[in-house]
Specification:
By secondary structure, the protein is α+β, with helices and mostly antiparallel strands. The chain contains 16 helices and 35 strands. It comes from Amycolatopsis vancoresmycina DSM 44592.
């Protein structure tokens, strides 16, 4: 036995590659860090250049790029008295910017490109626009100028010829905002009819939007355009160094996108895009050299406007100007650019900022951990009025504070459901929890009188979600567990009681289950705004988890009676879930007790984590979830009765609890396989590296260009690998007690550190053949349990101990050797 104690641990560690780095050497994990090295971020290459663009590499700081464009010719006009009629048109409103506007068909022939006809049948066709000229006009064709977020893709142009309508041209697959349509032969006519049968589907809806129809074939000089690639999604304020320009104030328009697929003449999502604006940022370039920093606002009134901060990978720069920006900006002239860059505003996660880290024998897992960390960093930023999502999201109580935003490019507002995952990622990588605490405390301060807690500041803290107050409870417990901030627990305790003892009882039915629809909640949404009603397994399993977390907060603040009461309620809800929501025929929990029979990833996963499911039920439910496995993850529903793509849609948000459940029930290999399919897909598809909000059919961005490709709620691979694979987790506030319970699966070795209030808690394990070795170093003044595989021989710090069960240790360094 002396030989085993003295030699075997060293032999195993060396064989598996877990060896200490030489003094002064760079730790191996640092090579996986993704963040830029400084806040001055530059594009890595020019993807394309079209039109008159000389030396496009000047955009990268290699000389000067020169954009030139001749002035477009005057546009043809219809005869006086020309009118237009349409099959439908939208009623007047204040647009997306509070300015009154109309959408009647006459806007398409008024000579003003700032107005447009907008049909009133979203996604329904045909949409017909009929133009009656004030006098017959000779036409070789017409030119259709669309509104930038409603391009007609398929349409015909008919003319009244010799008293009868005939098709003079057909267009399919159009993507151009300005489309010249040449007729099969010239015609003199007084009427033209455009029939649209398909439009571009945009975040502003699927409508026909036509700004102008010009009587003639308009061939403007091509727009000089170049696209630069920053190599990965970045966030902040774009900057352009202009070396000079012609004296006519030529305009530059910027379009941003996280993917090449959705990079076009407008951004894939920007605030002006969503609110009915041009979807681009505009700047009028002065003749003298200058450095322009994209700033939210307009140069004058409502002219030459920009959105400021953006999240994107690709930037499209064009020498062009909106007609509505004249005369401040012109669509022609010469612009010289000596460099493009970005002021990076999110948390800058360089190697020196990592307080926790992870590394294993599996290169893919290492890359996914640090890519998810970077995803989270992109959303960790200061809450600023100029940069948050505009839908009533600004809040003075958050202004200037570090928060965890929903995403880098869209929904720049902190949502508590996202914090449930992004908060864990924050605690395990860089921060002390400040960003999460700021969000949680602010939402508690805006609790409704009846106990409901808002999900975010959006819409003035009124967005009605059914499940998010439960996420506030679980996120609050996680925050206290990881940081030890019991002062927060005390300050929020009254809010906790009000949510759990007032609001959720008001939506509990006679069977003891939460039932969406009670107390006026029929129209409430959830994390995906799913049309679920009644007793939903996900809501009730999350309720059990929230009650368990609340009991932890109660104990931490000296409310033992509340803890016992909430645990008793949790037990009752768990019993009711098993009695009413378990489907023995499917071997899984129902999504809902009413409506079509289906089984959800969210409800089944949370039922396992909450301890509702027995081991046999857990194994059966996980098998059900795996049955629909896709190349890009596991779908969130097992049929399409709730939403049309339920079996094709993958959320990393709802996959995270499934990963946890698989690790904890002895299915580490299947958890790792699921990680590699889901995170591997996102890492190898545009934009690469960052974790997407959701994956749709065929592995697409599930909401097309609206999808956030860098979303904090999708970073669960960080806690999955640290808490489950490496095995390090707190069991009481501030890691006063902890557990290290590795779930190795097929991984040969792993090591890492977790930040705690008293210093890092590090763990390193390896498995080679029949030998498993674990070394843990924990801060003094803490204690924990080591859970290792059972074996014929178990040595703790060189002493033989029992062959099974947790090993209790105090702070310091401890080594366990298991011979199986």
């Amino acid at each position: 036995m002396k030989w085993l104690r003295a030699v075997l641990p060293v032999t195993v560690l060396v064989a598996s590659g877990v060896v200490a780095a030489p003094a002064g050497a760079t730790p191996g994990w640092q090579k996986y860090v993704v963040a830029p090295s400084s806040r001055d971020v530059r594009p890595v290459k020019v993807l394309s250049a079209t039109g008159d663009v000389a030396n496009p590499d000047g955009l990268l700081g290699r000389g000067v790029a020169t954009f030139k464009r001749q002035a477009p010719p005057p546009k043809p006009v219809w005869p006086a008295g020309t009118t237009a009629a349409a099959s439908s048109f939208h009623s007047p409103n204040n647009g997306g910017n509070g300015q009154p506007r109309t959408y009647d068909p006459g806007n398409a022939v008024d000579g003003n490109t700032g107005t447009f006809w907008n049909d009133d049948t979203i996604g329904a066709y045909p949409d017909v626009l009929t133009i009656t000229a004030g006098a017959p006009v000779a036409l070789p064709g017409v030119t259709v100028l669309s509104n930038v977020d409603g391009v007609p893709q398929d349409f015909t142009v008919e003319v009244l010829d010799a008293g009868a309508w005939r098709v003079a041209a057909s267009v399919t697959g159009n993507t151009a905002v300005q489309r010249a349509v040449t007729f099969d032969r010239p015609v003199t006519t007084a009427q033209v009819r455009i029939t649209v049968t398909k439009d571009q589907n945009t975040p502003s809806g699927e409508f026909s939007r036509v700004a102008e129809v010009w009587p003639g074939v308009v061939a403007d000089p091509p727009v000089p355009t170049a696209v630069v690639d920053f190599g990965k999604v970045v966030a902040g304020y774009p900057k352009i160094a202009f070396a000079g320009a012609s004296a006519n104030r030529p305009g530059v328009r910027l379009a941003f996108s996280e993917t090449r697929q959705y990079l076009g003449e407008r951004s894939d999502f920007t605030r002006s895009d969503f609110s009915g604006g041009p979807g681009t940022d505009q700047y009028a370039v002065p003749s003298a050299p200058t450095v322009w920093r994209d700033t939210k606002g307009c140069a004058s009134g409502n002219q030459v406007c920009a959105d400021g901060l953006h999240g994107f990978r690709y930037l499209r720069i064009s020498l062009d100007a909106l007609a509505s920006d004249a005369p401040l900006a012109q669509p022609s002239g010469e612009v010289r650019i000596s460099g493009v860059s970005l002021d990076f505003t999110p948390f800058l996660g360089t190697p020196s900022t990592y307080r926790g880290w992870f590394e294993s024998s599996d290169e893919e897992l290492n890359r996914y951990w640090y890519a998810a960390s970077y995803t989270n960093e992109l959303g960790m930023d200061t809450f600023r009025e100029s940069d948050v999502d505009p839908r009533g999201a600004f809040s003075p109580s958050l202004d200037g504070k570090l928060v965890l935003h929903d995403g880098a490019k869209r929904d720049r507002d902190p949502y508590v459901g996202d914090v449930a995952v992004s908060g864990l990622t924050e605690y395990l990588t860089h921060q002390d929890g400040t960003a999460a605490r700021n969000v949680l405390a602010d939402l508690a301060d805006h609790q409704r009188a009846d106990g409901w807690i808002p999900p975010a500041s959006i819409n003035g803290y009124t967005l009605p979600l059914f499940d998010y107050p439960l996420w506030w409870v679980t996120s609050s417990w996680d925050y206290v567990l990881y940081t030890g901030d019991t002062a927060y627990a005390s300050s929020c305790y009254s809010h906790l009681v009000k949510a759990l003892d007032s609001w959720y009882p008001s939506v509990t039915d006679s069977r003891g289950l939460l039932a969406k629809g009670l107390n006026g909640t029929g129209g409430y949404g959830d994390y995906a705004f799913l049309p679920r009603t009644g007793e939903v397994t996900y809501y009730n399993a999350l309720y059990v988890r929230a009650l368990q977390g609340a009991a932890g907060l109660a104990r931490a603040t000296g409310h033992a009676a509340d803890a016992e009461r909430w645990l008793s309620r949790a037990s009752g809800v768990a019993t009711a879930v098993n009695a009413h929501l378990w489907d023995p025929a499917a071997g899984a929990y129902l999504d809902s007790a009413e409506g079509a029979v289906r089984h959800g990833q969210d409800g089944n996963s949370h039922a396992i984590l909450a301890g509702i499911a027995s081991p046999a039920q857990a194994a059966s439910a996980l098998a059900r979830l795996a049955a629909g496995a896709l190349p890009y993850g596991n779908p969130f529903m097992d049929n399409d009765t709730l939403v049309s793509d339920g079996t094709k849609r993958v959320y990393a948000f709802t996959s995270f609890p499934e990963l946890q459940a698989r690790f904890r029930t002895g299915q580490a290999a299947s958890a790792i396989d699921q990680i590699k399919r889901m995170y591997g897909w996102m890492a190898t598809h545009d934009p690469g590296i960052t974790a997407w909000e959701g994956i749709g059919e065929g592995g697409s961005h599930y909401e097309q260009g609206y999808t956030s490709a860098a979303h904090g709620w999708s970073t669960g691979v960080v806690p999955a690998l640290t808490n489950e694979l490496l095995g390090v987790s707190p069991t009481s506030p501030g890691f006063a007690t902890w557990t290290v319970s590795p779930h190795p699966g097929p991984v040969s070795w792993a090591r890492g550190a977790v930040p705690t209030p008293k210093g890092a808690l590090s763990a390193s394990w390896s498995q080679q053949g029949s030998v498993f070795s674990l070394t843990v170093s924990a801060p003094r003044g803490t204690s924990g349990s080591l859970v290792v595989p059972s074996g014929r021989l178990v040595l703790l710090d060189g002493r033989a101990v029992r062959a099974a069960g947790p090993l209790t240790v105090s702070g310091g360094t401890h080594t366990v050797l298991v011979v199986r």
